[in-house]
Amino acid sequence: MEVIVTPDRGSAARIAAKIVASLLARNPSGVLGFATGSTPVPLYQELIRMHREEGLDFSRVTTFNLDEYVGLAPEHRCSYHSFMRENLFNHVNVAPQRIHIPDGLTDDIETFCQSYDQQIRDAGGIDLQILGIGNNGHIGFNEPSSSLASRTRIKTLSAQTLRDNARFFGSEENVPKHVITMGVGTILESRRCILMAFGESKAVAVAQMVEGPVSSMVPASALQLHSKVHVIIDEAAASQLTRLDYYKWVYENKPR
Ligand code: PGA
Q1: 104 lines ligand 1 (CB under 6 A)
Q2: How does pLDDT run across 150-209, given as a tens digit for each residue?
Q3: Domain 6-232 has CATH 3.40.50.1360
Q4: What is the pTM of this model?
């Protein structure tokens, strides 16, 4: 893992956006995996700025989102379909027919999940997956004890995630308990990952992810088995890392 510690979210977003832009410069038809939640918002703002001011072109890109709540229609204000429209898709030129977000209203979840993984394969696999991390170490909605080989499927949210996400729904009781999420195994198949984390509440999960052990109790720790992961975090999220000085030294001395 490459651990990049930045002074603030804006700097993290600019580093992550440059990785996205350089992928699209090499391959304008790249396949991007997107995440929701508070963490990727500064990245999406930077991508929108680059689209408007620098001509960053999404017209040939295909996208796959990590997850969606079961039972929420795409129009629901708390759905991840709405989140992606508001925070990115309404502001850049991604072709609507190449946007994929799990269908929270499907009446055959198992078949839908299999076909979602198949659509990722048919698109040639995900070139770059954007990730956040839960306070409990989840990636996507793969809660602790998720199989590290898991595929896209239905999951039941943990009590902590229901509490963490209550802020979007007004109260904990309104948060749907079930989600469709890419599996840990699905995420590990992407060719490159960027995981961002900000704030002290993520510090323990970040330390467990980076410094191990690899365990299904911290699903993000499975990223240690992936060969190309950029962990882009602020000082607060980095504060529990025991080898922090080493990661900073490595980044400062990165071969150009
Ligand atoms: P957050 O969520 O970005 O809203 O903190 C991250 C996650 O749960 O993966």
Answers
A1: no
A2: 999 999 999 999 999 999 999 999 999 999 999 999 999 999 999 999 999 999 999 999
A3: yes
A4: 0.97
